[in-house]
Amino acid sequence: MVQDLIQRIEQLKDRIRGSRYIVALTGAGVSAESGVPTFRGKNGLWKDYRAEDLATPDAFARNPQLVWEWYDWRRQLIASVTYNPAHRTLVELEKNSPRFTLITQNVDGLHQKAGSTNVLEIHGSIWKLRCTLCSDISENYEVPLKALPYCSMCGGLLRPHVVWFGESLPSDVLVKADNALNLCDLLMVIGTSGVVQPVASFPYYARTKGAFVLEVNVERTLISHIAHETILGKAGEILPLFL
Ligand code: OAD
User: Fold this and answer.
1) Does the beta carbon of 203 lie inside 6 Å of ligand 1?
2) Is the CB of 104 under 6 A from ligand 1?
3) 217 close to ligand 1 (CB < 6 Angstrom)
4) Atom 14 of ligand 1: nearest residue by CA position
5) What atom in ligand 1 is closest to the CA of residue 164?
6) Do 190 and 30 touch, CB atoms closer than 8 A?
7) Sheet strands side by side (includes 158-162)
């Protein structure tokens, strides 16, 4: 078993070294070892909280205070942790690859904190706020928030600049992601359950465009049957083996 894993890792290292363009697609599993809860699974956020009450435009319109309390709690939690070896490995891969794009569904900013630069935050960022009136986007790192935040330009109520259920992904980011998936020869899919569209279809798309799809996850997922290779294990333990 161990011998088999070592051999597979060696082959994957060769593939990584030989790739002209690597795209990494990450999900909540990458930040799990940092102490950020995932959404699904045993201790996932959606076990204790209802997405309909907290992560939809309707929920915000109904009760902005409640939604902000939940995001404020998450911001405090994220501010108290840091990146892990999985994030660090992706920084090294970016440095050593001719071309590298990181597409993340995570809103925690830990990839950038670790040092990744070419990052597409496809579900937005918990550290950015957007005005519900004028759409101005601003960065905000205040934890905890002292009160409901309002726009300094127009006075409108600010919301988290994240994608909620029922909303479209930011089109400029989507265009860049599409381009990257089209051109890459290696797609690494790390720590995502692959159930939320449209991101869940990215591995299928990249594969049809000729990319080798490598998945790293603690368990098999909906992506596994499309992946050329799935390595089972914690991202923070498996990814450093690729260096
Ligand atoms: P999920 O919570 O759905 O899935 C987390 C994945 O990480 C699962 O497949 C776990 O098996 C895996 N995992 C857990 N710990 C791991 C570890 N240490 N190493 C490797 N893998 C590990 O999170 P996402 O797939 O990111 O959307 O969820 C996608 C979207 O659903 C999120 O961006 C969020 C959520 O609702 C929005 O908020 C719009």
Assistant:
1) no
2) no
3) yes
4) 29
5) 39
6) yes
7) 137-139, 124-131, 158-162
Residues noted as catalytic: 123
Cα 29 to averaged position of ligand 1 atoms, centre (Å)? 5
Distance from Cα 188 to the centre of ligand 1, integer Å: 15
Torsion of CA 232, 236, 242, 243, to 10 degrees: -170
Q: Is the CB of 124 under 6 A from ligand 1?
A: no
pLDDT in the model for residue 204? 98
Cα of 27 to ligand 1 centre, how many Å?
Answer: 5
In which residue are the tokens 């939320």 written?
196
Q: Are 199 and 181 in contact (CB under 8 A)?
A: no
pLDDT in the model for residue 205: 98
Total-model pTM: 0.97
Average pLDDT over residues 47-72: 93
Residue 1 has pLDDT above 80, yes or no: no
Contact (Cβ atoms closer than 8 angstroms) between residue 148 and residue 157: yes
**pLDDT of 123:** 98
Give the 3-state DSSP-derived string for 26-54, with helices as H, strands as E and coil as C.
ECCHHHHCCCCCCCCCCCCHHHHCCHHHH
- Span 170-199, pLDDT tens digits: 999 999 999 999 999 999 999 999 999 999
